Amino acid sequence: MSGKGKARPRKGQRVSFKRADGQSSARRSDAVTGLRFTVDTAHGGTALIELVVLRPRRLALAFGSALRELAPTMVRSTVLQHLNGLKRFFVFLNETAPTIDGPEHLRAEHIDGFESWLEAQGVTTIHRHTIIAKAIIALRTIDAGRPGLLDEKLRQRLGYTSARSLGRSTPRDAYSGYVAKQLRDAARADIQAITRRLKSPAPIEHADATLRGHLEAAAEVIEAEGTIGHTHPVLLSFYRRFHLLGLENGTPIRDLHARRHLLAEDVIPFFVLLSLETGLEPECVKALRLDCLRNPASGTVEIDYVKRRARGSEWKRLRVRDGASSTPGGIIRTLIELTTAARKHKPSDSLWLYFHTGRLADRFLHPQEMIDIWVARHNLVDDAGQPLPLLLSRLRKTHKALWYAKSQGDMARFAVGHTPEVAARHYADLPSLRHLHEQAVVDGLNDALSSALQPRIVTPEEEAVARKAPSTLQLPVPAAQVRSMLSGKQDVWLASCSGFHNSPFAADGEPCAEPFWGCLECRNAVITARKLPSIIAFLDFIVVRRTEMAEADWWAKFGRPWSRVTQQVLPAFSEAVVADAREKAKALEHQPYLPLETRA
């Protein structure tokens, strides 16, 4: 130590604290403290988000924050789809841009490169589009929460998903009317059986009185508590007695709950019939609420439903039939009635409430295996007679296709809830409706051909007027020639001809070379009552020839003239005129000469 004396310590100062000093700083609402967290999703349910394995960590934290912000606006399945899409984006970055550390290092080229990378992996155009959208939506959310963080060119690139054409997807096809009828019949039969089972449950019966007592006690527990588990003392006593007697295993828990509640497999027929009758999207049917029926009037009712894909106008209404149990309104009322007992023990505003795997569930979760079992139980088959691969997503298309056929393609009636363009592209242009469109084209061509080539039929009343005023027939010939035709001076065998050297079947100025029954398909022909005896004689002849020729050959040769005479010419005249012509045809002393080509 130095020679100087030790310095005295400096006098301290008083320290004072405010109340606010003891409070922790406000935490940012969008901060994510880890890469594994649980989010609440729309319409109930939660989703576990795990981003622990993603690198770089700082970029993963930014995307995790965005996903947590987006999750409340999406259902659980959609959240998981976004999670999987982001994971693929990170795989791409790790392979092609390992130096990236945070969102500020991303560039527009990374989005375009991600698209090319997915294409190289064989991802289809539309699927590629949806995966890229997941990354873009997350980056937009990051940009909204932290302005100025992202590169400016990247921000501009976030304005669109892809610069490439999306192309046109293959539309999901509808089931045929034959398959739809099978589905309706099976669903209605099941709903009737389920209703009888729950409204009038069969008494509990068993040969062993002790076992019967255990089952009755278990039924009382279900009535009081809603469900009964396999570890409940009443059921344990039942199983001990059950095995003591050496009985085969059954499904006592399922059977006991089936007397009180809907089972998981019971929901399928309700869903199928409701989808076929309303045409609602599957996700809309699954999200129906207990109070979805509104404004009943005149045998109809409105269904209040949510379509989450319709951004900005999610809540919609559809007016449907109401009354009998087979109507859409009746189906929903039946569901509400049959789930009343379950709602006492599990309050829920979901329309769907049923017993499954030991508990009451109010979410529509039905694996394809359960649907396949229902199809097999009813022996449902497709148009080829093979077991039906039932997809719930095709039921809406089936409803739309049947309505399209019923409305005969009238877009004003068909486009319900869509613009005509969307209705035509997504619901009318289906493989199962192609035959209707092809038939419409055929009918249109036939109508055009018929209107262009059909003869002019003049009834006795019209003939009387035309003799005084030839212009009323509106034929492309002078009035003097019209009078000549009506007097019989220009008659050929089956009609009067207004242009033998101006035939649609020959060059202009050349004589008509068409067989004589071609007059029935010619715009130059004028058929009056005077020609009916000859036409009827020809008709009788080709009817006789039908018995002498092969059916296909007869139709090829005489099908059109037979159809023209029977469906157009004769119906244009009164019954009295036709009857008189038939008598004249019979009274002919000699049948008209028939050229050789009619007998060949």
What is this structure, in a nutshell?
With 600 residues, the protein is mostly helical. It has 23 helices and ten strands. It has a three-stranded antiparallel β-sheet with strand order 3-4-5. Strands 8-10-9 form a three-stranded mixed β-sheet, with no helix packed on it.
Brief descriptors of the model:
about 50% helix; mainly alpha; 10 strands; 3-stranded mixed β-sheet; 3-stranded antiparallel β-sheet; single chain; disordered N terminus; about 600 residues; 23 helices
Backbone CA Rg? 40 Å
Count, helices = 23
Percent range for β-strand residues: 5-15%
Q: How does the helix and strand content classify structurally?
A: mainly alpha
Mean pLDDT comes to 83
Shape, per Cα inertia axes: extended
Taking the sheet with the most strands, its summary is: 3 strands, antiparallel
Secondary structure: number of strands: 10
- What's the multimeric state? single chain
Helix content: 40-55%
Spans of at least 5 consecutive residues with low confidence:
1-5, 26-32
Span from first to last CA? 144 Å
- Tally the structural domains: 4
Strand sequence of the main sheet, in spatial order? 3-4-5
